[in-house]
Write a structure and sequence with these properties.
Number of strands: 2
Largest sheet: 2 strands, antiparallel
Number of helices: 9
Strand content: under 5%
Structural class: mainly alpha
């Protein structure tokens, strides 16, 4: 399984780097929109939609919203949507404390989870557009993902080495507090180092980036747990099987969906 995961990652990495670093923002956003439409298809299953027609309606709605954001894309709209994402993920912490909330497979809960999918996907799309379109935005976008990747790596090794105390055993039995600490350390270090490499040299901003790295990783963990909770409700192991050894799009993007609005909002607050 580990060999399969590494092989898949090595194939995807150059594609992701090329997508972030080479095209202008409008083309970057167009490709991201297509990826997020695919994520909406997977989310429709987690939301409880079992028919192709129902899932198709969800996907069509997501595509329409993403297209509207792409076509309008004013700085004000992107900022508002990004802040909506921040508010949603902070509020999501309370949902995680109530495992059975909206677990029943009824129409009301399906609608609630479909609406939740909008809050998961659309603000992250807006945040990605805002970040990529900013000054040196290609590199800041790469840094935001590197923070998440460093957090995943830190969580994996520290969790395996020191993991004893479970983080949320009912939602994701494999996650431990030691993994979280490793993730936070890895993410904060990459945030500071990456900021320094991007020309941030004063101590105040570097400290601010370190704090932002911690917050970004903390919310990324929330995103990971929330997708795990939705999978528990839907009684599925993975959101899809697109990537061998990695699951579906949501399994790869759950942390990114949560992390990106926080990172972008924090970067704006720091004036970077």
């Amino acid at each position: 399984m580990l060999k399969q995961r590494i092989t898949t990652a090595l194939i995807l990495l150059p594609l992701v780097l090329a997508l972030i670093l080479l095209p202008p923002t409008v083309y970057f956003a167009a490709v991201i929109a297509l990826v997020f439409v695919g994520a909406a298809w997977e989310w429709s299953l987690l939301a409880g939609c079992r028919t192709a027609v129902g899932r198709g309606i969800v996907v069509a709605g997501a595509a329409a919203l993403l297209l509207a954001v792409l076509l309008i894309a004013t700085p004000g709209l992107l900022t508002v949507l990004t802040l909506m994402g921040v508010a949603w993920w902070i509020g999501c912490c309370f949902w995680l404390r109530h495992f059975t909330f909206a677990a029943a497979p009824n129409a009301e809960n399906r609608l609630l989870k479909i609406g939740t999918g909008v809050l998961v996907i659309v603000p992250t799309f807006a945040a990605a557009m805002a970040l990529h379109g900013s000054d040196r935005g290609h590199w800041w976008t790469l840094l935001s993902l590197m923070i998440v990747w460093a957090a995943d790596t830190g969580a994996y090794f520290s969790g395996r080495q020191f993991g004893r105390r479970k983080l949320a055993p009912r939602i994701s039995p494999g996650k431990t507090w030691a993994g979280v600490y490793g993730a936070v350390l890895g993410g904060a270090l990459v945030a500071v180092l990456g900021g320094w490499m991007l020309g941030v040299s004063d101590a105040a901003h570097l400290i601010g980036l370190g704090v932002l790295g911690v917050l970004t990783v903390a919310i990324a963990v929330v995103g990971d747990l929330f997708e795990s909770l939705m999978k528990r409700h839907a009684e599925v192991k993975d959101s899809g099987n697109l990537f061998p050894g990695h699951g579906g799009l949501l399994d790869r993007l759950d942390s990114v969906f949560a992390a990106l609005p926080i990172f972008v909002a924090g970067k704006m607050l720091l004036g970077l």
